[in-house]
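User: Can you model how flavin mononucleotide sits in this protein?
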Amino acid sequence: MQDVTDLPFMRVIHHYGDPDYYFTEYFRVHPHSRLEKHILRSINEHGTGRPVFAQMIGESIPELVHTARELARHPVAGIDLNMGCPAPKIYKKNCGGGLLRDPSKIDRVLGALRESVTGRLTVKMRIGFDTTDTFAPILELIDKHDIDLLNLHARTVKQGYRGEAHYAFVKQAVDTLRCPVLANGNILSSRRALRVAAETGCSGLMVGRHAIRNPWIFRQIRQSFAGEPVFRPTFADARAYIDRLYHATRTGDCPERVHVNKMKKYLNFLGQAVDPEGRFLYDMRRARTEKDLFDVCDRHLMQTPRAPFPDEPHNGVIARPNCEGPAPQGGGGASGMSPVSGSSVPGLVPGT
Ligand SMILES: Cc1cc2nc3c(=O)[nH]c(=O)nc-3n(C[C@H](O)[C@H](O)[C@H](O)COP(=O)(O)O)c2cc1C
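Assistant: Here's the modeled complex, given as structure tokens:
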């Protein structure tokens, strides 16, 4: 995740229990792009012992091919192409999720990359741009170009991060493709992971935001699949995680105020599990200094240090109101959501 899964964050996750493999933030590919040094560090210096896939985002075929070759000189488990980013400034350039509007372009991009990448070539995508009409044709292209793994975020680009993920599309991909499929989108907890794996037959799960809220999630999922008792952190554990994150992600020259603001990006997610009224989030967002921030954390998390820290967010407590809050009128919805035909699914309220 952009600005999140950097080297310091990977090291924090390593402490609590690694996923089976990591995907980097995306490398931006454009006419004069060079591999971003800080992302390269997460490939070369992570020390987790787990494979790391390098993700890139772009639309120019020669430049994507060039970047893939450059990346292959580093110890990557594979090269991943982002076809899902919903940020308008990205998709308007036909990069990320924008590519989903043009299957013929995807055909050319994947063809060229498949010819030049000798190792694993993987794709991260969504189920469509604003409808799911291109989903089945794009799955055919994934198969045609021998993609080694598909990470499927089961929302459209226009849905952003709002509303439910539509796992029936993951099942459709599993049933159609020869390669393994990872289910992504709202894998909130080990319970949800088990349910989605059973429902879809996916080969694995990709977890994004919920690992920021709950860094124990990979360990918990592994325990659930093994039928072992699942580790339950306490509020005191969550408080210690905040400390670890604060110190691990602070660089020497970063002013306190700037770092406190960076911490708020992580705490927006963690705060979803602290209290059902969102009081922690309210107070935390107003902190200006390190002392303010830690005082708020102590006040909200250390009243009942031994109480279990919830493994799912409280209903209605929103991490990023602009991204996960209710859709603005007339925008952010999704239509045409049936996995096979593209007609609409009863009961799905667009953009909720
Ligand atoms: C802050 C942030 C940054 C993200 N950056 C990337 C990215 O660089 N590449 C990518 O494939 N997905 C990115 N995503 C999307 C996530 O990988 C994931 O698909 C999405 O959040 C849904 O999964 P989740 O419900 O487990 O978070 C990002 C998500 C967030 C919240």
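A couple of observations from the model: Residues 331-336, 340-352 have pLDDT under 50 and may be disordered. The longest helix spans residues 235-249.
User: Helpful, thanks.
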